[in-house]
Amino acid sequence: AMASKFNVVFVLGGPGAGKGTQCAKIVEKFGYVHLSAGDLLREERAKPGSEYGELIENHIKNGTIVPVEITCSLLERAMKESSKNEFLIDGFPRNQNNLEGWNKQMGEKVNLKFVLFFNCPLEVCTQRCLDRGAAGSGRSDDNMESLKKRFDTYMNATMPIIEHYEAQKLVRTMDATKGPDDIFAEVENLFS
Ligand code: UP5
Ligand code: MG
């Protein structure tokens, strides 16, 4: 018999919108597996002798998007290795290339439940990332120069993906400017 499909929630929103923070809370309360595409890419970049390390670092610093073959393979491998069935996929798909590559590689294996969208203005996003950088995040993209590019990519490449899912009535939009606990109070309604 065919194995059951992976249940997936995509988690999208600008740089520093709070995707990772809210995903951690969802995991704690609802037991999903949290896969951050950015974290998987940073992990891959850090592997000694990684074939894609330099390419990944260049994209991250420039706020541009890594080719889908790399990201999608990291996601699929992590999904399989988890031997679980409910996933939060954080920070993906970010552009048309991601969307098409995912649909081709994973479309038949996945049930997309909804898209959780953390809506957060540029100023708030930027300040959070700058604060995180100042506090020693060590992220090579938590600086003003990278943040401008990250936000450009978000507006030009990722917003159209959110609109694509909006047309399918799959987007659940959260006001991400509030405090983490206030945001989660709304988020948990979606998962209960
Ligand atoms: N914070 C969180 N919530 C807060 C709140 N409600 N109020 C006040 N402060 C709040 O939070 C960011 C910071 O804000 C933290 O210090 C937190 O304490 C605070 P976090 O939860 O980390 O936000 P998140 O949305 O996860 O921010 P992140 O920086 O991770 O978002 P990005 O989307 O920019 O980063 P990501 O890691 O997803 O991607 C990085 C890069 O990887 C991309 O730019 C791209 O180059 C590459 N990438 C790809 O190429 N392809 C992919 O598919 C994914 C990534
Ligand atoms: Mg994150």
From TrEMBL:
Residue numbers binding a ribonucleoside 5'-phosphate: 42, 64-66, 91-94, 139, 150
Family: Belongs to the adenylate kinase family. UMP-CMP kinase subfamily.
Top EC category: transferase
UniProt-annotated binding residues for ATP: 16-21, 132, 178
Chain segments annotated as transmembrane: none
Domain notes: Consists of three domains, a large central CORE domain and two small peripheral domains, NMPbind and LID, which undergo movements during catalysis. The LID domain closes over the site of phosphoryl transfer upon ATP binding. Assembling and dissambling the active center during each catalytic cycle provides an effective means to prevent ATP hydrolysis.
Keyword Nucleus (UniProt): yes
Protein role: Catalyzes the phosphorylation of pyrimidine nucleoside monophosphates at the expense of ATP. Plays an important role in de novo pyrimidine nucleotide biosynthesis. Has preference for UMP and CMP as phosphate acceptors.
UniProt GO cellular component terms: cytoplasm; nucleus
Principal cellular location given in the protein's record: cytoplasm
Oligomer status and interactors: Monomer.
Protein name: UMP-CMP kinase
Needed cofactors: Mg(2+)
Signal sequence segment: none
Cellular compartments annotated: Cytoplasm; Nucleus
Example of a GO biological process term: pyrimidine nucleotide biosynthetic process
Chain sites annotated for binding CMP: 98
Alphabetically ordered keywords of this record: ATP-binding, Cytoplasm, Kinase, Nucleotide-binding, Nucleus, Pyrimidine biosynthesis, Transferase
Catalyzed reactions per annotation: UMP + ATP = UDP + ADP; CMP + ATP = CDP + ADP; dCMP + ATP = dCDP + ADP
GO MF term (any one): ATP binding
Annotated segments matching region NMPbind: 36-66
CC cofactor note: Binds 1 Mg(2+) ion per monomer.
E.C. designation(s): 2.7.4.14
